Amino acid sequence: MLLQPNDQWRWFVGEDSHLMLELGDDMLFCTPYLKKHLVRAEQLDQCFSVEDTGLYYNFIDKLSSFGSSAQRVQAALNGVAVARFYKPLMPQSWFFEPQADYHQPELGELITLDITTELLTLMVVETSPSASVCISLSNEKLLSNSKQLITFGAIKVMNDRIISSDTHSHEQPIRQVG
Q: Are residues 121 and 160 in the same domain?
């Protein structure tokens, strides 16, 4: 079941300092994003906008092959939250392996990042010619002794680290056979 945005949805910061989305009918969606990581969190009490709705449906469309419908909605709403309210990030590309083929991702695209020991799946929520802001769709991962990437955690990476999920899905069978 996919949630359909309406004019009663409202963003706000909850008592526990997390960004929340009121969905009406006593339903709340809690993001993992704390007030200290949000732009203008002090005045944050906003309706789910037309732009939010456009992003939400873009992300839902791009997530069509990802998980259950509930997981897709959760990923899409977290993606909208990061795109709209997350403070600008500095790239943290050094955690990921550089790629020989440069890939310019699209908004909402599922991508892969290589942390040497495994591949992580992320969704692009903001793009530029050189770097992209992504949220992790993988389980929580330790990137170093001091850096952990939680599920739906936001990170900015240079585009030369990104592996297209289309490319990766075509390569996967070759790796398993060899």
A: yes
Within-domain flag for 174: no
User: 177, 148 in Cβ contact below 8 A?
Assistant: no
Residue ranges, the chain, pLDDT below 70: 1, 167-178
Q: Is residue 26 part of a domain?
A: yes
- Selection from 44, 49, 5, 58 nearest residue 27 by Cα: 5
Q: For the whole model, what pTM was predicted?
A: 0.90
Q: What domain range is 71 assigned to? A: 10-85
Of the CA atoms within 13 Å of residue 38, those in its CB half-sphere come to: 25
At residue 31's C-alpha, the angle toward residues 83 and 28, to 5°, is 120
Residue 172 backbone zone (phi > 0: left; psi -120 to 50: alpha; other: beta): alpha
